[in-house]
Amino acid sequence: MNRDHRIADEQGSATAELVLLTPLLILILVFVVALGRLTSARIEVDSAAAQAARAASIAWSPQSATQAGEQSAAATLSGDHVTCAHLGVSVDTSEFVPGGSVTVTVSCGVDLSQLTGLHLPTTQTISSKAVSPLDRFRSVAG
To answer: How many CB atoms lie under 10 A from the CB of residue 115?
Structure first.
């Protein structure tokens, strides 16, 4: 009889535990989603910076290099379905001479406002820098 009494006392305990643990499990899931977004955005911004630097390095003038770098970064991110709250592309053409290099910095604000409950900032800015050399045996304008 003691055994039956103990089983009756534990009825519903699994339900109570589930009710208490569900909010914690949801917060953990939202945190994992946030980390996934940031990691994916980091990879895409790195790729965009590298492609923009390459596009700028094959241009014929510093002005066209700046334009090519900006267009390439925007096209790469939109092609990968990355939406930036704010996109910043900086093309450094100060060493735009044969044998020199072009440096491109891409900054993307990742939107985290849909992920509620974690007190995360609404946007997290991710930046990446890439350098691409200019061919030593080519001519450049300007």
So the answer is: 14
